[in-house]
Amino acid sequence: MTDSSSPQTAPVRPSLTTAPQGSAMLRSLTGLLTRWLPRQRWFAGKGRPLSGLTVVSATELLPCGSGGPTPGLLHLLLRARQGPASGDCYQLLLGVRPALPPSLASALVGRPAEGPLRGSVVYEALHDPRLAGLLLERLRAPGTLGSLHFGRAPGVSIPSGLPARLLSSEQSNSSVVYGDMYILKLFRRVSPGVNPDLELPLALAKAGSTRVPAPAAWFEAVWPGGMTEPLTLGVLAPYLTGSTDGWVLALSSLSRRADFTSSAHALGRATAEVHTALAAALPTSVLRRPQLEQAATAMTERLAEAASAVPALRPYRAGLRTAFEALGDYARRGGTCAVQRLHGDLHLGQVLRSPDPEGRGCHWSVIDFEGEPARPLSDRRRLGPPVRDIAGMLRSFDYAASQHPASGPWVDAWYRANRTAYCRGYAEASGHDPLEQPELLRAHETDKAVYEVLYEARHRPAWLHVPMAAIRRLAAPPDH
């Protein structure tokens, strides 16, 4: 990615990461980080031993070896080795102080016992408002520092001195809010290539879409070894003050036994507008018989893999396969499926409702275009059928309904009414009704539910009953 401002290269100054003692400093951190990294909730390799760390790049954003009252700030990209594979690459921001104030005690990484940082305290820098604020200052002034490049959208002016606070709810990444004006999302596990959470919102902003907060600034790293694509490290976007996510709103509706269909209908329209804008701005294609048959085969294989790992799924394999067989039959009858760039992980937690800026009720915005973080970046940037996003949202309505303390006809009616309202809203804005292509919709809903069963069994066993209820429903004949 590039920006319209002329890059400003920071003045050259001595750096612990490039001076002769740099290797000693990094070596002194390796043991601390080997113990600290696997305990972080965004570390993806849990359950597998960490055999070692390799430094990919190290950049001092503030001097780390001065020993003075000003904290140092070190940016690291580390390759985590787990077994014979080279492992994932992680982004770390470390603060360095002579002593850690009580307010930052929970951010402690450790105390190096050797090297130029001996006697200092190393900690997670994003917990420190002072150091988190420095990132905003870097984003205000596009330029390059070491292997890092900071870019800014044309015409954007970012105020200085906005107070920083780290959000605590994320699992895969980290986000810092600045003065309720901006939110900076930092990707923890990174790989070469533009992250969709930067690429797609930039494309939508250029197309004039109002459904997605437009990136104000971002920063990237150059991958050592001459790879042409940079690594997207963070994206700064407007913070939608006063907004509420769709999950909270849906649960509120259920708790009050209130109607949610008008919101679901509007959300369907918003989803369609995003899809339409993405299709206009970026390449599209069409899947025909060979590709659709391959997709049906891949879904069947994923079902077999999930059933081998989750015994509760096995009694329903035959019924679930009929959805994938129907997709193959649809292809053999000449059916096709348009594909384009997608959100990739659409659910009620990825949409925000806020007061309409023009005073016309409420406005839905779509956020977090990263896709499923566990999937390779190349997979998340591939074209896919819009029905995949639609199926994800419909499954999210089912998850919300499962949170109601009492099951029964009213809860089931809530789910079905909002499912229909969402699809009708989508159809009105796009001209394509997902309910009129049942083979595509059922296959993708089934594939999503199978994925959910595997995920819940591995990570949240107490939630396994939610997708299993859907599995029983989807395994029944379509007219059941």
What features would you describe in this structure?
- With 480 residues, the protein is an alpha+beta fold.
- It has two domains: 1-239, no CATH class; 244-475, Aminoglycoside phosphotransferase (APH), C-terminal lobe (Aminoglycoside 3'-phosphotransferase, Chain: A, domain 2, Alpha-Beta Complex).
- It has helices spanning 22-36, 129-140, 196-206, 246-255, 261-281, 289-309, 317-332, 377-380, 386-402, 409-430, 438-459, 465-475; strands at residues 8-9, 52-62, 72-81, 89-97, 108-110, 121-124, 143-145, 148-152, 164-166, 173-178, 182-187, 189-190, 217-221, 231-238, 244-245, 285-287, 337-339, 351-355, 362-366.
- The strands form four sheets. An eight-stranded mixed beta sheet has the order 1-7-8-13-14-11-10-9, covered by helices on one side. Strands 2, 3, 4, 5, 6 and 12 form a six-stranded antiparallel beta sheet that branches.
- A hairpin with a 7-residue loop joins strand 3 and strand 4 (89-97).
- Helix 7 packs antiparallel against helix 11 (438-459).
- The longest helix is centred in the last third of the chain and has 22 residues, at 409-430.
- The model is unreliable at 2-14 (pLDDT under 50).
* Count of helix runs: 12
> Per DSSP, what share of the residues sits in E-state strands of 2 or more residues?
15-25%
Query: Helix- and strand-based class?
Result: alpha+beta
**Uncertain spans:** 2-14
Major sheet summary line: 8 strands, mixed
Binned, the helix content reads: 25-40%
Radius of gyration computed on alpha carbons:
24 Å
Average pLDDT score: 91
